[in-house]
Amino acid sequence: MKRRALGITRSVCAERPEASFAPPCSASGTLYCTYCSAVKHGSRAPMPSIRRYLSPRIRLVHRMSREAGSRFAILSGEFGLLGPYAQIPYYDHLLLAGEVAALVPRVAAYLSRKRIRSVRFFHEPLKGRPNLKPYLAAIRRACRLANARLVLSELSP
């Protein structure tokens, strides 16, 4: 099954469940998540994260979360997990491998606080995108720490 929206095709067969740290759950305990974007709205004033990041991928995953009745968050290397209406200022920061360990406890705390039992993390293909590896490492480790199930869903361009 393929679905075309905003120039991105998602394929159900591209999903890879990670080692399950918790049993599957209903949509209400599920978080649809994707990583932030380098392309941002340039205003220095704080604005909702869903408006700050100018990414069709983020908008697609947000829409899919609403359709599924699931929560939505953006994984930021600067701020951790952000709900779509979290007010954030302009920033320019790429998560580096050496920063993952410091970010993981904040992300795991968010998952625990929001009672998230399952995370569906949407990402672009890894080939040719080495900058995605720290984001994947962070969400994997945070899910393990928060005892949340992780499913990786690759989006095809």
How would you portray this structure in words?
The protein has a seven-stranded mixed beta sheet with strand order 1-2-9-8-3-5-6. It has a two-stranded antiparallel ribbon with strand order 4-7. The chain is globular. The protein has 157 residues and is α/β, with parallel strands linked by helices. Mean pLDDT is 87; it is low at 1-26. It is built from four helices and nine strands, in the order ββββααβββαβαβ.
Topology diagram in text:
Elements: E1 2-5, E2 8-17, E3 30-35, E4 47-48, H1 49-52, H2 56-68, E5 71-76, E6 80-82, E7 87-88, H3 100-113, E8 118-123, H4 133-146, E9 149-156
Parallel strand pairs: 3-5, 3-8, 8-9
Antiparallel strand pairs: 1-2, 2-9, 4-7, 5-6
Q: Can you describe this structure in just a few lines?
A:
With about 160 residues, the protein is α/β, with parallel strands linked by helices. The longest helix is centred in the last third of the chain and has 14 residues.
CATH topological fold name: Rossmann fold
Structural class assignment: alpha/beta
Task: Indicate the multimeric state.
Answer: single chain
Q: What would you say the CATH architecture is?
A: 3-Layer(aba) Sandwich
- Any idea of the CATH class? Alpha Beta
SSE topology string: EEEEHHEEEHEHE
Q: Radius of gyration from the CA trace? A: 14 Å
- How many helix segments? 4
Helix content: 25-40%
Beta strand %: 25-35%
Would you identify the regions where 5 or more consecutive residues have pLDDT less than 50? 1-26
Return the domain count.
1
Largest sheet: 7 strands, mixed
- Give the strand order, joined by hyphens, for the main sheet: 1-2-9-8-3-5-6
End-to-end C-alpha gap: 15 Å
Number of strands: 9
Shape: globular
Query: What is the typical, i.e. mean, pLDDT?
Result: 87
